[in-house]
Design brief:
It contains four helices and no strands. With 89 residues, the protein is an all-alpha fold.
C-alpha cells in the first residue's frame, strides 16, 4: 500500500511539473527547469521504493504510470473541449 501511495504522489508531482514545463514552452518562455526536474521524480520515487519497500516496487511503478496516463488523457480532453468551445464563439 505504501508503494501505491508513493507512486500516486510522485506521479502527480511529475504530471504537474510536466504540464507546467509544456505550458512555459508553449508560451515561448525558455524556462525548461520544470521539464528537467520532472525526470527526477520517477528516479527518486522508484529508488526510494526499492530501498525501503522492495516488494512494493511494481505497484509503485504502475501507480506512477497510471497517474501520468490518466492525467495526460484528461488534460488533452479538457484542452480539446476548451478549443472547440472557443471556435463556436
Amino acid at each position: 500500500m505504501a508503494g501505491i501511495l508513493l507512486g500516486l504522489g510522485l506521479g502527480a508531482v511529475q504530471l504537474v511539473l510536466l504540464l507546467l514545463g509544456v505550458g512555459l514552452l508553449g508560451s515561448r518562455k525558455l524556462k525548461i527547469w520544470a521539464l528537467a526536474v520532472q525526470f527526477l521524480c520517477p528516479l527518486a520515487g522508484l529508488l526510494l521504493c526499492a530501498l525501503v519497500w522492495t516488494a512494493q516496487l511494481l505497484p509503485c511503478a504502475v501507480a506512477m504510470s497510471a497517474v501520468l496516463v490518466l492525467g495526460g488523457v484528461t488534460g488533452f480532453l479538457v484542452f480539446r473541449a476548451r478549443d472547440s468551445h472557443r471556435k463556436k464563439d
